[in-house]
Structure prediction request, 295 residues.
Amino acid sequence: MCSLKDLDIQSRAAVALVEEWQTPHTIVRAIWKLEDLIGLLARATAAARDVQREITNRSGTPALDSAAQYNVTSITAYLLEALQRLKQAADGAVHIVEMFDGQGYSIDGSAELRECAAALPEIVADVEAFAEGLEWEELERTAMPSDRIRAVADYLSSTGQASA
Amino acid sequence: MAPARIQTGSIIWAKVTDPLTQAELEPHAAIVLNPQHEIDAGSDLDVYVCTTSFRNRQPGWFDVPTKPGGHEMTGLDQACVVKATWHNVVPQAKVLRISGRAPSRLFKQLQNWLADKERERFRKQRTPPSS
Prediction:
């Protein structure tokens, strides 16, 4: 039968073992999670690049009708939202990797992560430029015609609202 | 690089006239308002004039993006506004140069302002004068 003293020693040893196990393993697990995160971000960035190319590669294609235009505009807005979120996550992950680097840990894929973080702003800029082009395609068609613009200008002059 | 052809929303430079005195002024930047089919047909351009004079802000004045050395989209390098109260008609042959294009968001603001003023005009036409 175990004495109280034995129980005391064994329980202390167990606590010590658990603490010993927890400390290094917490970091190991954190690094594993981080490496999983880097892998996820790398795959997501590659997917973002593919989607961006697929959506923006319209050179030589005919002008879209209004329904198709609305569809592409919606998809582009959705893509931009996802890209902004991905960029935010990648920036956050870079920050975490830098913290681990500072503590002397080596993280697999950290160089790849930095490449992703650097590539994402370019992808975002390309999609934003594409979205701007889409907006203009619509505005070129729907802008107010000259006769109505001039009627408004005459109205402003006649009501004293025109000014330089 | 500035676009070679005039488009809806292009920022052009041309001599303009004062809307009150009709005096001809030095070249100003101005934003082209017409739909593309009118521009392509060679019509005179309806523009709202940009100016660096914008103290005492008025309704219908909108900020235009600028940057020292030339903004990458507008090509403009001095802080300025476009005044939707300052309409001019510019023949395409009188365009001195195209410096860039307004952001679509700014152009939409101008279109919304135009639409608001058009509605205001219709409302006033329907309202009988008070005796």
Observations:
- Helices of chain A lie at 4-56, 66-102, 110-142, 146-158.
- Chain A has a mean pLDDT of 85.
- Residues 30 and 36 of chain A are 10 Å apart (CA to CA).
